[in-house]
Amino acid sequence: MSGIRTPISTLAATAQPASTEIPAPLIPLLSSLTSIIYTIEHLFNKIPGSPIIVRYIKSSYQDDPWRSVLELFLLAFAIRTVLKGRTRGEGEGKSFIKLTEKEIDELVDEFNPLPLADDPTPADSFTLDTVPIIYGPNGIKVKTAANGKTLLNLATPNWHGFIENDKMKQVAIETLGQYGVGTCGPSGFYGTIDVHVKAEADIASFIGTEASIIYSQAFALVSSAIPAFAKRGDIIVADRGVNFGIHKGLQISRSNIKWYAHGDMKDLERVLQSVERERKRKGGRLTKKFIVAEGIFENDGMLLDLPKVIELKKKYKYRLILDECQSFGMMGAHGRGITEHFGIPATEVDMILGSMANGLATGGGFCAGSQVVCQHQRINSSASVFSASLPAMLATCASAAIDILKTQPNLMTSLQANITIFRQQLSKLEAGGPGSEQKLISIPSDMNSGLIHIFLLDPPESLEDEELLLQDIVDEVSNTSNLLITRSRRLRSQEVFEPEPSLKICVSGYMSKKDVESAGKGLKAAIVKICGSE
């Protein structure tokens, strides 16, 4: 544009062949257009920076004319957006109704917001009313009323009596005096203290992994560790029987979830083969692939076939996330979990998740694995980054409990002996059990599991009626046998797969054999009384 001064009439005349002349009526029009363009160009050239704009337009048009068209369109759209009001002015629109101040006040007074939560259903109220309250210290013997009778506690996972252990009590008192109650900060923000580092080292050494990371709550561990590694587009193959915490972790990860039948290794391989066929057919990119399962399943006490899972994970190139929140401290010769139970090195499992609340009677959870796995969680796991770190006395008590498990293998022997005694008392009521007594129950829990779930063989048609029947058994053993047991607590309508109602029993090796035998007989009598045919 700059430097062009030739009138358009002259250009038009010179551009025509010699035999062509511009019609006389058009000459004044062309002269006027030329004058207007010249004036606009003259004014534009007075704007500071105009030569730069001209050069940019010439270069842009020469290299990519379509870009200039697009930029012109975007400029026009931006100008239109700025000049146009973002919202309609008051009183605009065909359906606009102008209200007086009085009418507005009346509408505000009549507004009734929806409640934050619905009123409790009868089932909710029943659940709340039947939650026992422990008066005084928890342990093997407890009271559920201030002046009530003492009950044998079969509701708490106190596998080795660590709750009552004098050494652990002394460690807790000493730590409380030195470190105080809490840390008041997440692990990554001045919440990590020396006893945390020692507890992580003790756990890793005990299990047999490179490293471990501790969390302040086991549920948060499970629901945070999974999405720290699995993301959208990744593939997770999970057992249908996994616990609620795992379900939350899978949901948060937004991965592609594939389910296999609970405890069925043939179906697991079928699903793995199906995933591989689908990947080859679609020619999709390689993604991270995980198998997620539990060592001892929280919902029924079944044992995972770990050797077969390890074989399949290697065959199909998967990583294994193993939740040992129930089995750690309860399974194996020294309580290391199902890796020790099956004689498999812990390094064969990519991630081992465990509960220190269940296994060590302290609090919190841990993830054991390689250095890379643990370090990654310190900056990518939401529960590790945002939750206050574990109180110091829980960390020192965890280290003390591990020392006890290392030096007293007889604890595991006592636990297994009590499990066997308890199961023997109920065996005649089990489907397929010995004797001619009426078969009333099913116990899918592993014979070595201290966590025992008891299901009714012929339950009522509705879940509510089944829960009521199970609660009758709970009340019966409390009144007649001085036992504290519990029903499995579920978040109905929130579970991906609704577990069946069951009685949940936790056997402890700290109980006397006489107490365990008496507890088994008392529970058997209650089941026969409530569920048996007259």
Spatial strand arrangement across the major sheet: 3-9-8-7-6-4-5
Q: Give the overall pLDDT as a whole number.
A: 89
Determine Rg (CA atoms, Å). Answer: 37 Å
Write down the overall geometry. Answer: elongated
What is the class of the domain at 181-407 in the CATH system?
Alpha Beta
Would you identify the CATH H-level superfamily of the domain at 181-407?
Type I PLP-dependent aspartate aminotransferase-like (Major domain)
- CATH topology (fold) name of the domain at 181-407: Aspartate Aminotransferase, domain 2
* Name of the CATH architecture of the domain at 181-407: 3-Layer(aba) Sandwich
Q: Name the structural class.
A: alpha/beta
Describe the main β-sheet briefly: 7 strands, mixed
Q: Indicate the low-confidence ranges by residue numbers.
A: 1-19
> In total, how many beta strands?
14
Helix content: 40-55%
Distance between termini? 107 Å
- Contiguous helical run count: 21
* Percent range for β-strand residues: 5-15%
Short synopsis of the structure:
The chain is 48% helix and 11% strand. With 534 residues, it is an alpha/beta fold.
Short descriptors:
534 residues; alpha/beta; Aspartate Aminotransferase, domain 1; Aspartate Aminotransferase, domain 2; seven-stranded mixed sheet; 14 strands; 48% helix; 11% strand
Care to describe what's here?
- By secondary structure, the protein is of the alpha/beta class.
- Among the domains are: 122-162 and 438-532, Aspartate Aminotransferase, domain 1 (Alpha-Beta Complex), CATH 3.90.1150; 181-407, Aspartate Aminotransferase, domain 2.
- The chain has 21 helices and 14 strands.
- Strands 3-9-8-7-6-4-5 form a seven-stranded mixed sheet, with helices on both faces.
- α13 (306-315) links the parallel β6 and β7.
- α3 crosses α4.
- The chain is elongated.
- Mean pLDDT is 89; it is low at 1-19.
